[in-house]
Every structure is written in structure tokens, then in C-alpha cells.
Amino acid sequence: MECNDYNITRDLERKNLNLNPLQRGGVLPREAREALHDFGDGYSVCDYCSGRLDEIAKPSISGFLEDLSKFIKVDDVRTTHGARESKFIVMHSICEPGDIIVVDGNAHYTTHLAAERAGLEIIEVPNSEYPEFRVDMDVYEETLKNSIDEYGEIKLAVLTHVDGDYGNLTDAKSFGNFCNKLNVPSLLNCAYSMGRLPIDVNGWNIDFVVGSGHKSMAASGPIGVLGMKHEWAETLLKRSPRHTKKEVEMLGCTSRGAPIATLMASLPHVVNRVKNWNEEVELSRSFVANLEEIEGITQLGIKPTNHDLVRFDTPILHEISKIHPRKGFFLYEELKSRNIVGIKRGQTEWFKCSTYGMSKNQRDYIADSFKEIVEKFAK
Ligand SMILES: Cc1ncc(COP(=O)(O)O)c(C=O)c1O
């Protein structure tokens, strides 16, 4: 048989500035690229395994997990295949089909799918809607209390720490505290925060935390993080009666090759970059201010932004698309010709983007490019 040409090349990141929020936090530092090369073979971390992934000493996965738990200030931690798998593991371990959970109105679709896969019913905490789409902790607490009154028991409360639509940062500490007071286990989804900004799971009184290595921790995908208060370890990390070393929810072992090797190699880099989070936010705010100098471009979500992921309403770009011969494709093509990618082809009414990790000059160049494009075509 002759195989098709799969077109496995990727010049996007090397040649262009990529604004896709999904891509910015997963860029590998040099040391992780080297690990990727060394650990590219299938079960590459399993040469010296004596039965459990988290106990492997060479490479030191056990040492890495110890550092990771200190980094996010949590008692017990495991790697999974992604934030979504981590959420599912929690739901599957502590809930029964038919149970009810409460979830914030900005939750990622993978939170919903994890709940559906576990057979759970979802009660949603509404966000504040246009233009902020804020998840208010008073509204969350009230919804949780009402749900307990109505249904008796709520098995889990889930909060998206930073959502993927507006980049709104929520108040994790307040969430952890009222969940604790109401006796409802809490899960914080840190896919867009762990690896970008400081996380303090124990300080925030959170039961479960999930993170995404490929989204925010400079790792090759797929790899996720699952952290928990020690009191949950017996439930979540229960062992198989037949294969007594193996943890059932991990199906014995999770990531066992390049994804975990790159996550490990990147941890020192990630620990360091988190220290610069305030500067990142400042740079993100000034990028927003620059773009908002264009009449017809407005940031949505909480203002000023507290994150690098930002969403803009862009009626001016939509107006241009109505008169431009390339219609909605003009924006993508104009940006691409300036080596800027990551805004979806054909999209002009709004877009979300991130400049995480870019220099001030690069961010200014991007904002100037938008200004130039609007000046070129706006009537
Ligand atoms: C808020 C949020 N949670 C979870 C995920 C999924 O992460 P993963 O790919 O690690 O499952 C995403 C991905 O976009 C996300 O934005």
C-alpha cells in the first residue's frame, strides 16, 4: 500500500507570530525540545519502571511530581492525558450516574462532556452576560445554596479559573471557602492558569485542581495535571485488587513518553515564568489599549483584563468584510502577509487572541498592523 502525503510540516510558529490563545502557553523552551528528541520513542520513560509511572526514578518522575505539587501547593498530584481527563477522573470517582453537580456559566465544553460521560446532571451558574460575562462568586454561592435546598446533595462544584472565551479570572479563594462551608467538594479548572500564573490550591481551600500541560505548561500534548487534597487520595487513587500496584482511574499508567518528558523538562522554565505574571498582565493590558485606539474594536470580558487571552468585538472589521473583494477572508490574508496568524480564516465580527510570551515590540507590531489594515480599507 502507498500512503498519502500527510503534509507533516509546521512552519506556523517559527515563521509567524501566532495569536491563537490555544497555542501560546504550550510553546516548548529549548530544554523541552531536546527532551522531545530524546524521549520521542513510544514508552520512552518506562525503561526503569518497577510497576507505577509516578514512582519511576529514571527519569525522575517521582521527583518531578514532588516539585509539581509544591509548585501548585497541593497535597497529591498525578499526570493525566489532559485537563478534560482529569475532570472526568474526579467526576467518575466521586459521583454516581444521576448525581447533580454545579458548574460556572463560562465552563469549557470539556467540563460538560466529562459530566455527560460520567452520567451527571449539570446546574449552571449564570454569568453576567454582555459585555463582561463575569462569573460572580456571590451568584455562584447563591446558586449552590439554592441547589442544595432543592436537590439535597450537590456532589461537586466546578469553577473555571480562567475561561477560554473571555479570559476572565475568577476568585478561586472565595469559591474554595464557600464550597468548604457548604460541604461541597470543589474542583478548579486551571487549564488557562496553571503554568501561567501562581496557583495555591491549599491556600484557596480547593479539593481538586486540574491543569493542561499542552495549553499552559510548555509541554507537548496531550498531558494534564490532576491535584487533590490528601483526604481524596484514597478514593481517586484507589488500587486494583488484581493488579495491586496499579491505580484504577489512571488505567495503570497515563502519559508514558514525550508529553511527560517535555512537561518535566519545562517545569523549571514554567516555575520561573510564573514569577513574571504581573508583567504579562501589564503587557496584555497595553496591547488591549493599543487595539482599542481603533474605532470599532472593543475588548469584552472584565476590564481591565487580568489575563493574556482577550476577546474583542470588531464591528469595523466586519464592515470592511462587506465591501472587500475577499469578503471575510481579507483579515486573515492581510495579517498573514505581515506574518501574523492565529485569527480564524473568515472571522471578522469578533476574535479572541493572546500575545502571551511575546516581546513588547512584537505586541506593538501586531497592534500597528491592525491599525494599518483598518486605515487601508475603512471608508
Ligand atoms: C478552560 C479550558 N478548560 C479545559 C480545556 C481542555 O484542556 P485539555 O486539552 O488539556 O483537555 C480547555 C481547552 O481549550 C480550556 O480552555
From TrEMBL:
Under Enzyme Commission nomenclature, its number is: 2.5.1.73
4Fe-4S: is it a keyword of this entry?
A: no
The cofactors it requires, by name, are: pyridoxal 5'-phosphate
* Residue positions where N6-(pyridoxal phosphate)lysine is found in the record: 215
Q: Which residues bind pyridoxal 5'-phosphate?
A: 83-84, 189, 212-214
Q: Which domain of life is it from?
A: Archaea
Q: Could you confirm whether the keyword Transmembrane appears in this record? A: no
Q: From the Swiss-Prot or TrEMBL record, what is one GO molecular function term?
A: Sep-tRNA:Cys-tRNA synthase activity
InterPro entries assigned: PyrdxlP-dep_Trfase, PyrdxlP-dep_Trfase_major, PyrdxlP-dep_Trfase_small, Sep_Cys-tRNA_synth_arc, SepSecS/SepCysS
What biological-process GO terms show up in the record? translation
Q: Which UniProt keywords apply?
A: Protein biosynthesis, Pyridoxal phosphate, Transferase
Catalysed reaction(s) here are: O-phospho-L-seryl-tRNA(Cys) + hydrogen sulfide + H(+) = L-cysteinyl-tRNA(Cys) + phosphate
- HAMAP family hit by this protein: Sep_Cys_tRNA_synth
Q: What does this protein do?
A: Converts O-phospho-L-seryl-tRNA(Cys) (Sep-tRNA(Cys)) to L-cysteinyl-tRNA(Cys) (Cys-tRNA(Cys)).
Q: Subunit arrangement?
A: Homodimer. Interacts with SepRS.
Q: Which family does it belong to?
A: Belongs to the SepCysS family.
- Any idea what this protein is called? O-phospho-L-seryl-tRNA:Cys-tRNA synthase
Question: What lineage does UniProt assign to this protein's organism?
Answer: Archaea, Methanobacteriati, Methanobacteriota, Methanomada group, Methanobacteria
